Amino acid sequence: MTIISNYIFFISTSIKFHLFRSLTFFYLSILSKPMFSSVRYKKSTNLSILVHSIGIYLLYSLSGIYNEKISIHKYGNSNYKSTLFPMVLQCLGGVFVSKFLSRLKGESLLIKDFKIIFYYFLLSFLALTSTFLWRYSLNFLSYPTVIISKCCKLLSIAIMNFLILKKKFDNRKYFSILLTTVSVLCFSMSGKSNNFTFKGIFFLILNLSLDGLLNVTQDNVFKKFNVSSGNVMFYNNLIRLIMSLILMILTKDINYSYEFISLNPEILKDLIFSSLLNVLGQLLIYSMLEKHGSLVLTTVNISRNMLSIILSLVLFGHGIGFTQCICILGVIISISLDLLHDKKKKDKLI
Questions:
Q1: What are the transmembrane regions (predicted)?
Q2: So where are the chain's domains?
Q3: Which of 55, 269, 298, 319 could cross-link with 284 by S-S, CB 3.0 to 4.6 Å?
Q4: CA-CA distances (angstroms) from residue 14 to 7, 18, 275, 312?
Q5: pTM
């Protein structure tokens, strides 16, 4: 039986690797085409948004399954607690993939304006800290609660736009944001399990605040310096990789991860596949930011989070009550209001 199970494991791992490799080259070939990087193509948004959205839904939904498995599954007799080593793997993959894509598109990674270095360090710090807080909050809250809280990102973006860019939104937008926020808070506090903690909510609020600042800063970088998505992805991942490695050494997380993986080598394949899926998702995230901005990306991410919640409930058997179903419906209504309003605005412009 051991020989058969090992053979099945080898076959399934090989299939996953070949599928990922095929998917990687498929999206790299699409994103490297001239029409996806030209100014003219940016005006024809429908196909571009569709291609990006499908990729983001697929890749981050699969990555989320692995993330949840890593966070709640016991390898041996214990859970894996490191938040830094998964980030190291993701950043390392991001450096290589973005460099390969830039070479494929014939783009230079040389920095032309050294003022952008400050922004790259700021983006890297915000992204690293935000990811750490997101993963750390999983120690106190269920995965569906953490995922649905990401739907509140619109609130943090609106606040940061107002505080930093002095940008205001209409009353309908504020109502939509309020509906999403209240729905998420009710979802978090009405769970059947006892895993709701104010400590977890505190870390989520910090995470969302940094996410809002990160999105506003990213938009500013693309507009101010006119850089490619590959350039931003390469330097952000490179700086985050260096930061993560330094933190792993200082906190001795590198020793913990080495010992844990040595005792439980089966976790390594989950970490690798989660990181690979995340890297390819990053590719689409940065590309979508460059072409369509953070608000379109956030709307796509919110609807993607709803899919992740459904998958989490189905695959990992999280309990969900009637009140939480109403809360999810509230988020869906909020998203629908945004989409209908944006469609009406586009129709008026046409």
A1: 6-28, 49-67, 87-104, 116-134, 140-162, 174-190, 196-214, 234-251, 271-289, 321-340
A2: 54-349
A3: 55
A4: 11, 6, 16, 25
A5: 0.72
